[in-house]
UniProtKB/TrEMBL annotation:
Its cofactor is Mn(2+). This is 2-isopropylmalate synthase. NCBIfam families: leuA_bact, PRK00915.1-3. Belongs to the alpha-IPM synthase/homocitrate synthase family. LeuA type 1 subfamily. The gene is leuA. The lineage of its organism: Bacteria, Pseudomonadati, Planctomycetota, Phycisphaerae, Sedimentisphaerales. Catalyzes the condensation of the acetyl group of acetyl-CoA with 3-methyl-2-oxobutanoate (2-ketoisovalerate) to form 3-carboxy-3-hydroxy-4-methylpentanoate (2-isopropylmalate). GO terms for biological process: L-leucine biosynthetic process. Its EC number is 2.3.3.13. InterPro entries: 2-IPM_HCS-like (IPR050073), 2-isopropylmalate_synth_dimer (IPR013709), AIPM/Hcit_synth_CS (IPR002034), Aldolase_TIM (IPR013785), LeuA/HCS_post-cat (IPR054691), LeuA_allosteric_dom_sf (IPR036230), LeuA_bact_synth (IPR005671), PYR_CT (IPR000891). It comes from Anaerobaca lacustris.
Length: 520
């Protein structure tokens, strides 16, 4: 077995699913298992077969249908558990039984109510029983992190003799710190007789927020299997997050020196990481926090002026890995109160605006005012800023009067009066809702019917006096125009936005010049 390969053991479907509220149906488990195989994990822990008929069936179906990874199931050090695991795993081409028993004084005394010698006997018997079903047997001394090291050495030596092939060292309650966990792995690797015939594995929980750091310390000290779960799912604060482990090893491969061979390898196709993370989040309903490493919405987002400037000049100034490596389309440049001139100018260019220096300065000043009021400034806002600040459009159409009637059991109707080049025209119309009715009446009054492509409204200020700001995007003869309107009355804001877009469309038609992507 090459010593520079790290095996990724995914326990999303077993320990991950033990997260309160994360339960998955059998088809959902199968879907995740197939994606884990596409991601390239080496081992999938599909469930705890004895614990329920659904767990048994899910493990059996994963064993039957998922090709590639080794499929494993968990079993206590009890014949009934091991037999259930053996049966559920039978259809798998590559299978492993993972059996465990607690070894810490606290667990042995209070939970198992058994003396250490009996625990050793149960562990040995469990491994021997598992070997009757499979050649590949993993043993875990549960709560190893709080176990006495001489006892760990004794029980691990005994299970190796009994036929265990992987020795997993769980920090079950996330108690250990990285240096300590690394030293534990180094000690076991050095002192357990026969351990060189086995793979040493980490299984770290995140109660102190150091599950990934502990796992990496384990790898640094000779562990070559890492147990982890997608998005860090798992009991309590979760397990080591698969995506973080993989990208740490991928990005810093040479840090984990390995007898001079240069670095560590894995079987993972990192480009599948984002897709896998999203799938698990959607199916479990566990939302990913925006600042989560690797897969959070902000993991490859930049807003601060100095950072964006650096990134635009050379990506590696602020990105230690590329978003493409995990299967994302690219980095996200967010416009907000921290954006600098370089970032703003770049976005204007991307949107198709060619601004002179003075125009850019004027637009940037207005942008900062808006950014101070909003968390994020969108492309539509940039278009509106440039429209308002830089390109003053003549108001051919002006909304003079608007009346809307709508409510439960009422057909929404609107009447408008619009001033068009000095003359006023009135119209009334019905619609699917008050905004639709108002737009229909405006179309009627102006005689123009551009296609409405997008409509959005949001509160610009807080409280019950909040200003609503409507943004519309209309299309005419293949050209897009953005209009904006603000009012404390959201229907009025919507009508103003539509009229604004029509004015921009009319101005562009009059000059008939080639327009950028979003017309001014
Ligand atoms: C650290 C971990 O993640 S361990 C895995 C945790 N996962 C789960 O618990 C999965 C869901 N669990 C279940 O479905 C159930 O708890 C079962 C089917 C496993 C067992 O259910 P029950 O038989 O009703 O027992 P219960 O869960 O209440 O208690 C656990 C029993 O197993 C014993 N036990 C716990 N771990 C082990 C072990 N590794 N080997 C042998 N016995 C064990 C306990 O001492 C207790 O035995 P007791 O009844 O003699 O006191
Ligand atoms: C069963 C073992 C590996 C476990 O989940 C733990 O100790 O956390």
């Amino acid at each position: 077995m090459p010593d520079d390969k790290v095996f990724i053991f995914d326990t999303t479907l077993r320990d991950g699913e033990q997260s309160p509220g994360a339960s998955l149906s059998i088809p959902q488990k199968l879907e995740i298992a197939q994606q884990l195989a596409t991601l390239g994990v080496d081992i999938i822990e599909a469930g705890f077969p004895v614990s329920s008929p659904a767990q048994f069936e899910a493990t059996r179906l994963v064993a039957e249908q998922v090709q590639g990874p080794v499929i494993t199931g968990l079993a206590r050090a009890k014949d009934v558990d091991i037999e259930a695991a053996g049966k559920a795993l039978a259809p798998a081409a590559n299978k492993r039984i993972h059996t465990f028993i607690a070894t810490s004084p606290i667990h042995m005394k209070h939970k198992l109510n058994k003396p250490p010698a009996e625990v050793v006997k149960m562990a040995v018997a469990a491994v021997q029983c598992a070997r009757q079903f499979v050649d590949d047997v993993e043993f875990s001394p549960e709560d190893a992190g709080r176990s006495e090291v001489p006892f760990l050495i004794e029980i691990l030596a005994a299970v190796i003799e009994a036929g265990a092939t992987t020795l997993n060292i769980p920090d079950t309650v996330g108690y250990m710190l990285p240096y300590e966990y690394g030293q534990l792995i180094a000690t076991l690797k050095r002192d357990v007789p026969g351990i060189d015939r086995c793979v040493i594995s980490t299984h770290c929980h995140n109660d102190l927020g150091v599950a990934v750091a502990n796992s990496l310390a384990g790898v640094q000290n000779g562990a070559r299997q890492v147990e982890c779960a997608v998005n860090g799912l798992g009991e309590r604060a979760g397990n080591a997050a698969l995506e973080e482990i993989v990208m740490a090893i991928h990005t810093r491969a040479n840090f984990f020196t390995d007898g001079g061979s240069g670095g560590l390898t894995m079987n993972i196709n990192t480009k599948e990481i984002y897709r896998t993370s999203q799938l698990v989040s959607q199916l479990t309903g566990f939302v990913i926090q925006p600042n989560k490493a690797i897969v959070g919405a902000n993991a490859f987002a930049h807003e601060s002026g100095i950072h964006v400037d650096g990134i635009l000049k050379e990506r590696s100034t602020y990105e230690i890995m590329t978003p493409e490596t995990i299967g994302l389309g690219g980095s996200r440049m967010v416009l907000g109160r921290h954006t600098g001139r370089h970032g703003f100018a770049d976005r204007c260019r991307q949107l198709g605006y060619k601004l002179k220096d003075a125009e850019l300065e004027q637009a940037y000043a207005r942008f900062l005012e808006i950014a101070d009021k909003k968390k994020e400034v969108f492309d539509e806002d940039v278009a509106a800023i440039i429209n308002d600040e830089v390109r003053v459009v003549s108001q051919v159409y002006e909304l003079k009067y608007l009346h809307v009637a709508s409510g439960t059991g009422t057909l929404p109707t609107a009447s408008v009066r619009i001033r068009i080049a000095g003359q006023e025209r009135q119209a009334a119309a019905c619609g699917d809702g008050p905004v639709d009715a108002a737009y229909e009446a405006i179309r009627e009054a102006t005689g123009l019917s551009p296609k409405l492509e997008n409509y959005s409204i949001r509160a610009v200020t807080g409280g019950k006096e909040a200003m609503g700001e409507a943004t519309v995007r209309i299309i005419d003869a293949g050209r897009t125009f953005i209009g904006r309107g603000a009012s404390t009355d959201i229907i009025e804001a919507s009508a103003k936005a539509y009229v604004d877009a029509i004015n921009r469309m009319t101005a562009a038609q009059e000059t008939n010049g080639p327009g950028p992507k979003a017309e001014l």
